[in-house]
Amino acid sequence: MNKFAQTQEKRQAPIIAPKEREQELLRYQILDTSPEESYDLITKTIAHICQAPLALITFVSKERQWFKSKYGMDVPETPMCDSFCVAAIESRSSLFIVEDARKDPQFDNNPLVHKARAVVFYAGVPLITKRGVSIGTLAIIDNKPRKLSEEQLEFLHRFADQVMHLLKLRLRNQQVINAKDKLIAMNEELSKYSYTLAHDLKAPLRHINSFAKLIQRRCAVKLDEEELDMLSFVSKAAVDLSNLVDKTIAIASGKEKWEDGIQEVDLKELVEESIALIPKPESVKFEVGGQLPPVLTNPSILQRILLNLYENAIKYNDKPEGLIKTLFSETDEHYRICVWDNGPGMSEEFQKRAMDEFEIDYHEDADGNTGTGIGLATVASLAKKIGGKVTLRSKLQEFTCVTFSIKKAVGQ
Q1: Burial profile 352-376: b = 16 or more Cβ within 10 angstroms, e = fewer
Q2: Phi-psi domain of 219 (left: phi exceeds 0; alpha: psi -120 through 50; beta: other)
Q3: For 258-407, which CATH class?
């Protein structure tokens, strides 16, 4: 035996149990697939290198041996009983060679050896999976006795490794496809859930608006001006939130895309309206700085970003006197809005992953609860929809500044 074959013999002997082999073939999903150029190139090349009339990539199933690629023959599969490939697998060797099958007792009754175009010479390398299971062979066949050179044997092994590399790529591609399908299904479920949740919010918002108006009518003479203004605010907030829910339902159901809602938005008015919608304690003050011009964007998405950032800034503010600033700036291509607060801030380590879903900094709100870890991830996702992105600056125990951008329309 040549040196290369001796080295290959030291490899771990493959598992040949039919059950494990069937499981591996099912995992790779290779049986009965269409011809592929990458496999056919291997059989054609190895046949030329070894000067053999036949070359096969064979996979052994329960009752048959099936040829993924065949050079020099047209039969797609043959019965197990006549299989040289099975003999190669059962030899538990990394290289199975039969120099003259007519003189080998184990093939005395094999019809392939005694027909007109007989199988006389066979050299096969088992195809061994990462789990140590032999699922088939790469083999060359000749109708006359012969020997292979050390170089030819090395190529036979190398091409067998290449077949396994192609199978690994196939498995990875299938895993990516499965993961993508799973993600699509999850997104569809999430969309349905968002639609249902938004739809369920409509009823209580209607009730809030109705009750606020009912109290205004029935108790107008008993309430002072400030109390009536508070009821008007409650009623307006319910209507505004109901409109926001309508937009969410439309987008979640696919009836409206975010691009459909692009319009000129008075940024100053939208910021003030968003601040008014947020329940806030007296200890927290809001400031708005910078010139806020009209912008072309989707107001529903922009308001969802602002509401999310304002709610978080209020919820986790740990200072006796909370301060939340909305600052505006612009570049040649983007408008930039920063929501700054003097809350607990974030560590440098957490800032690196703060935009990832379900990442939690474990700061507690006034009720002792931590967040869900989806707030900033949602903001980042929404900002991307309006052609922008989110950046974060923060210093622990001092401040947090979340800046999101809005892509300018042509001509702005």
Answers
A1: eebbeeebebebeeeeeeebebebb
A2: alpha
A3: alpha beta
pTM over 0.85: no
Q: Which residue has the higher pLDDT, 352 or 339?
A: 339
In angstroms, the CA 82 to CA 65 distance is 9
- Residue-range domain boundaries for the chain: 3-178, 258-407
Per-residue pLDDT of 42-74, as tens digits, reads 999 999 999 999 999 999 988 888 999 999 988
CB atoms within 10 A of CB 189: 10
Query: Which of the following CATH numbers is that of domain 3-178: 3.30.420.10, 3.40.50.150, 2.60.40.10, 3.30.450.40?
Result: 3.30.450.40
355: tokens are 């935009």
E strand spans, 275-345: 284-289, 294-297, 322-330, 334-341
- Contact, 56 vs 138, CB < 8 A? yes
Query: Which is nearest to 87 in space by CA: 110, 67, 69, 103?
Result: 110
